[in-house]
Amino acid sequence: MTRPLSNLLLPFLILSPFLIILGQGEYDLGASLQHSAEWGEVLLNTFLQSSLSAALAILLGFTFCFGLLSLPKSSKKTSVIRVLYLLPAILPPISVVVSFIRLTDLSSLEITDLPAIVLVHGFMNAGLVSLSIESVVRDRLTGFLQAAEVLGASRVQTVFRVLLPLLKPTLFSLFVLVFGFCLLSFVVPLMLAPSSLWSLEVLIFKALKNTGRLDLALGASVLQMLVVLSLIVVLYPKRYLAPSRLGAQAWSINSGWVCSVPILITLGILLLPLYEVTHISALLAESEGLFFMEWFRAFRKSLLVMLSSLLFSSVLVGWVLYIAPQERLHHFLNSSVAFSPVLVGFSFWLLGFNFSPISELKIGLAIALFFLPVVYRWQIGEHLQSLKRQMNVARSLGATDWQVFNKIVMPQSQEILLSSLGLIALWAAGDFVMTSLLSFSTATLPMLVETLSTSYRLGLAQLTSMSILMLGGLGFALVWTILKLYFGGNRRRYV
Questions:
Q1: Which CATH architecture has domain 1-17+279-489?
Q2: Per-residue pLDDT tens for 316-334?
């Protein structure tokens, strides 16, 4: 398949869930419009929680950013801190939510419904906002800050009269980005406000899964698609999360203590399950041995889903590396931030064949399609742009597309493949939305976590959440082993 043809087909493949829903023959516009009042109420609730969550993420991220700016740009300590900042946004949301529920239970705090949703969303995205602001400040604004310091401006004046005005476009773009994440959040509003509808995602899911109201699900899906496409139009011309590679010195400010807040939150998410390990005997005794049987079946199902996702993701990521998307497709993939997991899962449900082993393959393909734009925006796109000059020179010398891919792109893409496929393995292990819609025979680990949480068996839910992270780590190790064998066995060919 030629590169120009691939550049045309890939957007249609990514948009295929939307096309499947729009082309659904059972869609009755008149019947769906009867539920417009219900859509409107849920849409307003969704916009409210998304706006508050995005505002909190921007506020926290801007504050935490000062801690990052107090550190040297390139050091092992700074790299570790950046990873800890980013982890809440990378970890499966169900693990973060279960840790939050368990923490509030242990501390006897009653934080539920909208406040809980906003708080979790805010802290999940604050680290991502911090890293984005830090990149902009270091690479573009250092000279302005140094000039303000030379002219005698105080730190307060520098922040409010220099930094904030210059960061307005960045803060706006980040607000839209986080707003899109929260708009399409599913696990957080479902588990923290099970009796309320704070997300269209939850409305579609409950209409399909619990009540079987296909007309309501289809109508809400079309409404959400319009919102999603509107966000893509806003994001399309921009590259919000592609950090510049220009060098600059950090703005010296004594705010290192600020680093400790997001780090402690991340460590709490990771280490809280260890508290449950100390009580594992009592927890298992309470379940009368049934928990282990349920857990084993769920683990096996999640393992199959993860392997299926890795298979399809490897094909799609390899395809993207081969075609090296042209400018329009590059911007499209960078802006495809707001695709809905419920819509993707719903569209694959409409295709039928919802039985094993076809269901595992469908879940794997759905997860691969959903997360491809995410890993492209975070890593692959910037990597391919850095290789663009080498590829153009090779083509000008008569190299074929396969030679460019095999001799230039692949030898320099080992780390990108490892991180991209490793992240997809982690997200596939923790996916709740698409597995819930497409898995009919056996529950997966995230589905088991949700069941345990709703039945107030929080200790067992926390242990199961830890096994999700372990499964994701197993997937990461599998990707690392395969890539090491492949690149190691082909090293001579690339020298």
A1: Orthogonal Bundle (1.10)
A2: 998 888 888 877 777 777 7
